[in-house]
Amino acid sequence: MFSAATLKLTAWYLIILVAICLIFSFIIFELSTSEISSRLERLQIRAEGSTRTVTLPGPLTLTDVRVDQTEEAKTSIFIGLVYMNLAVVSLGGVGSFLLARRTLRPIEEAHDAQSRFTSDASHELRTPLAIMKSEIQVALREPKMKPREYRELLESNLEEVDKLTQLSQSLLQLSRLEHDTIEKTDRIDVFASIKHAVKSLHIDHARMTYEVPKQSITIDGNKSVLDDLFRILLDNAVKYSPDASPITIQLNSNGRSCKISVTNQGAPIPKEDLERIFDRFYRVERSRASSRVSGYGLGLSLAQKITNLHDGTISVASSIKNGTVFSVQLPQVRSNR
User: How do strand 313-319 and strand 257-264 relate by DSSP bridges?
Assistant: First the structure.
């Protein structure tokens, strides 16, 4: 589809280029020949009015010479314009193709991303629905189910409904952040917001280690989505680390920006996964993830989007020695503001 679109766009670029070349060539030809004819006419008048004798070959007159010279000039200008247009069209064809590819590449990438997103979302939605359907079908085939078994079925279905609810909320939030603008007018104390996230996730305080400066660090942003950012980072640290293992929060500031680092002691993330860890629906499944880890791989995509909306950056580093560190750098409110 995009190959055909590239060729069509290239053709349109070439048509426009050829039209412009023909128009300018016609104008240049007319102006040039008119100027040459005019000058030759003036030269003929001067020659005819001069007292000097002008010797001409054979029976030719000054008018014949002027006409011949005009025709030769027209032919030379025409041939020159033809060669120039051929060169311009040849180079323009290559340039038009490259420009068409460059123009369509973001659209193609967005289309591919949308297709992957739709495919992944459909797969994630299909799994809980298939589980619920199979369980209900089994229950309908069993005429003598006990109340306890009905209760287990309903609890299982409710669990799948909760998963679908979580997925739909994440998808809606991603869509909202993708297409809507957010207000960044809140003055936020970063450490206080992180402490609030720890409390909302019910993380054992014994696991938490804080390395923060004495002076509070504040940023301007949207409090609601920044709270989501800190919850995502902390929830990720809890999910992918052993129970009771330490989680370290580090805050640093250089006066212009602040850096928030969340470190956990889970299994290191393989190098090939680090490059894709912020992709939607991407999850590290090997030694790092266990069967108890729930989720759809949307949290870190949300974290990256929230960070970008606040003109910040997010990165990850992972090793056996230092654990896994997610770092977010955000612009800081200056003290003189």
Answer: unpaired
Work out the mean pLDDT of the chain and round it to a whole number. Answer: 82
Quickly list H helices, the chain. Answer: 2-49, 62-141, 147-179, 190-200, 223-239, 271-274, 299-309
Beta pairing, strands 218-221 & 247-253: unpaired
| The two structure tokens encoding residue 105 | 């590449």
Can you give the pLDDT at residue 176?
Answer: 73
Query: What are 256's two structure tokens?
Result: 């212009």
Report the percentage of the chain scoring pLDDT > 90. Answer: 17
Residue 296, Cβ neighbours under 10 Å: how many?
A: 21
Beta bridge partners of 327: 261, 315
Stretch 215-229: mean pLDDT: 89
Phi, psi (deg, nearest 5) at residue 329? -115, 125
pLDDT given at position 52: 60
Q: Provide the CA 306 distance to its chain's centre, in angstroms.
A: 14
Closest CA to 305 of 134, 176, 166: 176
Helix crossing, 299-309 with 223-239: angle to 10°? 140
- The model's pTM is 0.60
